[in-house]
């Protein structure tokens, strides 16, 4: 199943794809099954039952509503760095034997179509197209062979980074958590609709239509299953937790000269069989001034 979280007339909604159409309900309707996050956290058959019920709900024009991140308030957003050999090389790092792990916070999340905002004090706004895995079943010390059974589904992320802030200190947290830089969506696709661990699917990032990143998910050093197993070795993974699995080579930082995203740009991340996450890029000061005007 394919789900989209949205807002219409100030109310949150959830839609499911039926062929090329979408059907959904908002929280204003007594039959609203709940948010995607709540359904995943409930577990069991909650998500499947909601999808079946929504399939007979009224049609939703997905282009006429405000899309939201599939999950807006996950407890954990765990990001993985240096998970493609070519990206580690272009970044000047030796490929690690253990994944490079850092956190994002949900205050940075934006949806498909929302602007990625560049702060006025930095020009170094970079793109990073990535696969998202969403945990559907809690677990600790999960064996790699069992790990994919804990994944509910997948989505797309653009881990937009403020590079000079990322490298102000050994920890990357500041440069990875600016407001309005964590693009997430446009949809959530259940795991049963995709190859195990999304192996073999193509990831492509485009800036103003030009391809800047392209790789197979199979090129990841640490597969989805391996990441779930490793992460669960030191913390309990819970339903609704988000794992952002790393970006391939081609980032703007590594180019000569560097290729930074600027006001007026459009950045797209496409993963085969999942969809296209598209966001305009705006200067934060200009965007905020427009909201006040």
UniProtKB/TrEMBL annotation:
Segments forming domain Fumarylacetoacetase-like C-terminal: 76-282
Entry-linked InterPro entries: FAH (IPR051121), Fumarylacetoacetase-like_C (IPR011234), Fumarylacetoacetase_C_sf (IPR036663)
SUPFAM superfamilies linked to this entry: FAH
Protein name as annotated: 2-keto-4-pentenoate hydratase/2-oxohepta-3-ene-1,7-dioic acid hydratase in catechol pathway
Organism (species): Shinella granuli
Keyword Metal-binding part of the UniProt annotation: yes
One Pfam family hit: FAA_hydrolase
Signal peptide range in chain numbering: none
Gene Ontology terms: biological process: carboxylic acid metabolic process
Molecular function via GO: isomerase activity; metal ion binding
Keyword Metal-binding: yes
Family that this chain belongs to: Belongs to the FAH family.
């Amino acid at each position: 199943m394919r789900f989209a979280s949205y807002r219409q007339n100030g109310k949150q909604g959830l839609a499911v794809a039926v062929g090329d159409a979408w059907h959904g309900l908002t929280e204003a309707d007594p039959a609203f099954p709940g948010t995607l996050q709540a359904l995943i956290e409930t577990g069991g058959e909650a998500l499947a039952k909601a999808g079946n019920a929504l399939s007979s709900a009224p049609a939703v024009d997905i282009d006429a509503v405000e899309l939201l991140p599939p999950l807006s308030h996950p407890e954990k957003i765990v990001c993985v760095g240096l998970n493609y050999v070519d990206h580690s090389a272009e970044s000047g790092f030796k490929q690690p034997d253990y994944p490079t792990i850092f956190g994002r916070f949900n205050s940075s999340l934006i949806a498909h179509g929302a602007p990625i905002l560049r702060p006025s004090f930095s020009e170094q706004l970079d793109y990073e197209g990535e696969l998202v895995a969403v945990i559907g079943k809690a677990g600790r010390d999960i064996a790699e062979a069992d790990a994919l059974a804990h994944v509910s589904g997948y989505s797309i992320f653009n881990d937009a980074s403020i590079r000079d802030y990322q490298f102000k200190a050994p920890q990357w947290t500041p440069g990875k958590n600016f407001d309005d830089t964590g693009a997430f969506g446009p949809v959530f696709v259940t795991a049963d609709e995709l190859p195990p661990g999304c192996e073999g699917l193509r990831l492509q990032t485009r800036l103003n239509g030009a391809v800047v990143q392209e790789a197979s998910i199979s090129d990841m050093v640490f597969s989805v299953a391996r990441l779930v197993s490793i992460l669960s070795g030191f913390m309990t993974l819970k339903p609704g937790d988000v794992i952002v699995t790393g970006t391939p080579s081609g980032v703007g930082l590594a180019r000569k000269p560097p290729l930074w995203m600027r006001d007026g740009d459009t950045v797209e991340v496409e993963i085969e069989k999942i969809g296209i996450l598209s966001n305009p890029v705006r200067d934060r000061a200009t965007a905020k001034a427009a909201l006040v005007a």
